Amino acid sequence: MQDRRPEFYLLILLLFWPDDVQPAITNLPNLEQCLRKMRHSYKSKYQKYLRGRYLLPLFFLAKRKGLQRLIYTSKLSQTDLERLTEGDGSEEIKDLQRINGQVRDHKVFAITGQKQIQVTPHDRASVCKQGRVSFYLGFNIRGPVAYNIRYKDKRYFLSITMRSRRESWFYQGKCQKSELLCSAEVEVAFNRETLKEIFSFNHNVEQMGKENAKMD
After folding, report:
1. Beta bridge partners of 146
2. What is the 3-class SS of the chain, one letter each residue?
3. Start-to-end CA span in the chain (Å)
4. In this structure, are residues 137 and 144 in contact, taking their beta carbons and an 8 Å threshold?
5. 194-205: b or e for each residue (b if 16 or more CB lie within 10 Å)?
6. Residues 6+ apart with CB under 8 A from 127
7. CB 101 within 8 A of CB 136
8. What range does the record give for the signal peptide (predicted)?
9. Do 101 and 89 meet the contact criterion of CB atoms below 8 Å apart?
10. Cα(199)–Cα(192) distance, rounded to whole angstroms?
11. What HEC string does 52-106 produce?
């Protein structure tokens, strides 16, 4: 497969992206190699002109068979597009097919049969840990993109530590709720009065501050 423009490789991906009912075809193109060449072609042909710009998805994978499984982005409602790009992973888009995948080393892979094909996450912040995921698959001029990533592990945890630092209270928390793709590490300073308003439990805030001050 010689070097071509990105549009050529996009056509190859659309025509030969694997599905469960794909007819037996001999001499299938190597999609991983196609993707590498596509990204290289995009970098050499378009990146200097489109640097920093948002690449609109051109197609999405729908709940259909054959070539009918490709749906133009323009056929989706504005509401569905907003849910795809701004949703929290719990969104369900009626006409689109969720793809099974895997996150490894902060990289997202689409799993289709025996193949694992790396795709680009639309929202990199949503790739918060390793594990099994599902997502909607879109295609832009640079390659396949995973939208609305949802972790299949339903467990979540929340850990909180508090410590005093002179006259300020510091809250450190880490939460990870897989089905909503919540992943954050924050450190926010509260004064004592704010802390009393936020926490409704009956601990003595002043005493807690003295005990936790030993940690500093």
Report:
1. 121, 137
2. CCCCCHHHHHHHHHHHCCCCCCCCCCCCCCHHHHHHHHHHHHHHHCHHHHCCCCCCCCEEEECCCHHHHEEEHHHCCHHHHHHHHHCCCCCCCCCECEEEEEEECCEEEEEECCEEEEEEECCHHHCCCCEEEEEEEEEECCEEEEEEEEECCCCEEEEEEEEEECCEEEEEEEEEEHHHCEEEEEEEEECHHHHHHHCCCCCCHHHHHHHHHCCC
3. 61
4. yes
5. ebeeeeeeeeee
6. 103, 106, 107, 108, 121, 149
7. no
8. 1-23
9. no
10. 11
11. CCCCCCCEEEECCCHHHHEEEHHHCCHHHHHHHHHCCCCCCCCCECEEEEEEECC
- Tokens coding 50: 């489109």
